């Protein structure tokens, strides 16, 4: 399937929320998230010829984004933390919901403790992918996806409770 540069940019813009979520699942620091976001876009562009149209563009985008994130994460873990001494406090603004932000912080902190398959599963699950789509994207059976999603949800709940957050 041939996609023009303009179509590619439109699809990336339309589905950039996927890229932000993947970036946030793998990194805490905004700078790292932004670096990963850019790397994912680069890898999507570089591998655009591999998109045959057999699946949804977003499914292919997830596969590339997750694979890129895993490789990028491994590289970044080996580097020293250049931002360790910098503390940035979020600023209050209109529409800011501190409670929701805290819930998301607990969720993402918990997700970071999952293995790479569990992260990919839960991300696609919360995005509303079907069991069949997740199975295709991750090379698992549908039954295995159902079992792993249930176990991962329980694991996430346990991690979040251990963090001291009550539902």
Based on CA atoms alone, the radius of gyration comes out at 17 Å
| Shape category | globular
> Mean pLDDT, nearest integer?
82
Kindly state the number of beta strands: 0
Query: How many helices does DSSP assign?
Result: 8
Tell me the fraction of residues in β-strands, as a range: under 5%
State the gist of this model:
The protein is mainly α.
Summarize the structure in words:
This protein has 167 residues and is mostly helical. It has eight helices and no strands. The chain has helices at 5-14, 16-26, 30-46, 57-77, 98-111, 116-126, 131-138, 142-162. Helix 3 packs across helix 4 (57-77) and helix 4 packs across helix 7 (131-138). The chain is globular, with a radius of gyration of 17 Å.
Topology record:
Layout (H helix, E strand, L loop, with lengths): L4 H10 L1 H11 L3 H17 L10 H21 L20 H14 L4 H11 L4 H8 L3 H21 L5
Summary keywords:
mainly alpha, 68% helix, 8 helices, globular, 167 residues
């Amino acid at each position: 399937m041939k996609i023009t540069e303009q179509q590619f940019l439109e699809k990336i813009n339309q589905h950039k929320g996927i890229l932000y979520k993947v970036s946030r699942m793998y990194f805490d620091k905004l700078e790292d998230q932004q670096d990963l976001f850019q790397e994912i876009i680069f890898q999507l562009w570089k591998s655009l010829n591999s998109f045959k149209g057999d699946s949804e563009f977003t499914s292919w985008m997830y596969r590339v984004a997750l694979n890129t994130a895993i490789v990028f994460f491994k590289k970044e873990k080996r580097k020293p933390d250049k931002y360790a001494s910098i503390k940035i406090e979020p600023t209050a603004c209109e529409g800011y919901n501190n409670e929701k932000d805290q819930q998301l912080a607990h969720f993402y902190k918990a997700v970071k403790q999952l293995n790479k398959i569990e992260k990919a599963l839960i991300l696609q699950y919360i995005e509303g992918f079907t069991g069949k789509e997740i199975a295709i994207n991750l090379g698992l059976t549908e039954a295995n996806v159902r079992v792993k999603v249930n176990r991962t949800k329980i694991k996430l709940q346990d991690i979040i409770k251990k963090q001291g957050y009550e539902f």
